[in-house]
Amino acid sequence: MRFLRTLLFAIVLASAFFYFTTYRNGLHSPNWISHPQDVEITEAAGSESLDAEEQNNIAVYRKNIASVVNITSRVMTFDFFYGLVPQEGQGSGFVIDKEGHILTNYHVIAEARQVEVTLHNHKKYKATIVGTDKSHDLAIVQIKAPDLQPMTLGDSTNLQVGQKVYAIGNPFALAGTLTQGIVSSIRQVREPDGLEIEEAIQTDAAINPGNSGGPLLNRHGEVIGINTMIASSVGQSAGIGFAIPINTAKAVINDLVTLGRVRRPALGVHTIPIDPETADELGLATDYGLLIIQSVPGGAADRAGLRGGSERAYLGNIPITIGGDLIVAINGEKVESQQTLARIMNKHRAGDTVKVTIFRSKKQLEVSVVLGEARDQV
């Protein structure tokens, strides 16, 4: 009997709890809910038409997606016990001709023992490293495959901040990914290994690990850059990515394919930069430029007749020779520092002819110089 009273009290208590917390607050199923045989929904009249921007996005993607590849590189590293173990790295690249040459970043295939390329149709091919240019973070690999579609290489000379760009690649191994943004800036940047990229294209188009080596495109679907690095504290896109200008690559592609290396151009001079104070002290004709201390014997400048100094002098405590030619411009571009000279040289290759504007004493001259190869003039 006592048990029954306890059970009855529990039932009453539970019922009261349900009434005050659920039923009275309207959480029970109302009597107006129906269960029809068919559900009527409101549907759009037809497929939504695409606006002009969307149509262009789709056109750029369809034009180029078959030319963008995934690159897998395998390197051998040592584990904790000094045993050799294989490691894989992934990046992107793009086809530049029907012979199967693919442009990518040097760091994508650096020290690789084996390189494999996967096309958009999922077919895989073993690739051969044809040429590398570590100083520009560029490399070319080649595959033997039918019906390849080369990409169109554009011009990165007059890019404007604000113009629309697209990146296609394989971020986090997600093949065939398109992202969109703008040119955020054109600036010099330093890669993690210390190499500098002149006139790098900064963009807010999402670039992530795996995008390296892939193309940056303009609105016409032409390649204007090679995506290479990001500025981020978390290892993924923070809206600041960088691409190597395509003109930098175009200047060395022929050397990479035919020679496997780049014939780095050299003027063949040792110089010191001139500022107004130094110019006044030395009695020079202008207050900027590079004063030739020495023309490397047999080098490009020496062959063209550019002269080094012949008079001993001191710049502070540093002994120099003065009286040489003062370089003020190359191909009409003002030369104010050795960094400027290096940037101009990066636009050329050995064998190119440039017009060097100099002052010899107070007389301005223009001299044609056939650039030599840097390794021949060290």
Structure description:
This protein has 378 residues and is an alpha+beta fold. It folds into three domains: 62-142, Thrombin, subunit H (Beta Barrel), CATH 2.40.10; 164-258, Thrombin, subunit H (Beta Barrel), CATH 2.40.10.10; 265-376, Roll (Pdz3 Domain), CATH 2.30.42. The protein has seven helices and 22 strands. It has helices at residues 2-23, 52-64, 106-109, 246-258, 276-282, 300-304, 338-345, and strands at 68-78, 84-95, 101-104, 114-118, 124-133, 138-142, 164-169, 177-190, 196-203, 215-217, 223-230, 241-245, 265-266, 269-274, 289-295, 311-315, 318-322, 326-330, 333-334, 353-360, 363-370, 372-373. The strands form five sheets. A six-stranded antiparallel barrel has the order 1-2-3-6-5-4. It has a six-stranded antiparallel β-barrel with strand order 7-8-9-12-11-10. Strands 14, 15, 18, 19, 20 and 21 form a six-stranded antiparallel sheet that branches. A hairpin with a 2-residue loop joins β16 and β17. It is elongated. The mean pLDDT is 87.
What is the percentage of strand-forming residues? Answer: 35-45%
Order of helices and strands: HHEEEHEEEEEEEEEHEEHEHEEEEHEEE
Low-confidence stretches: none
- Tell the overall outline: elongated
What separation lies between the terminal Cα atoms?
110 Å
Strand order of the largest sheet: 1-2-3-6-5-4
- So, the CATH homologous superfamily of the largest domain? PDZ domain
The total domain count is 3
How many whole angstroms does the radius of gyration measure? 33 Å
The oligomerization state is: single chain
Number of helices: 7
Largest sheet: 6 strands, antiparallel, barrel
Q: What fold name goes in the CATH topology slot of the largest domain?
A: Pdz3 Domain
If you average the pLDDT, what whole number results?
87
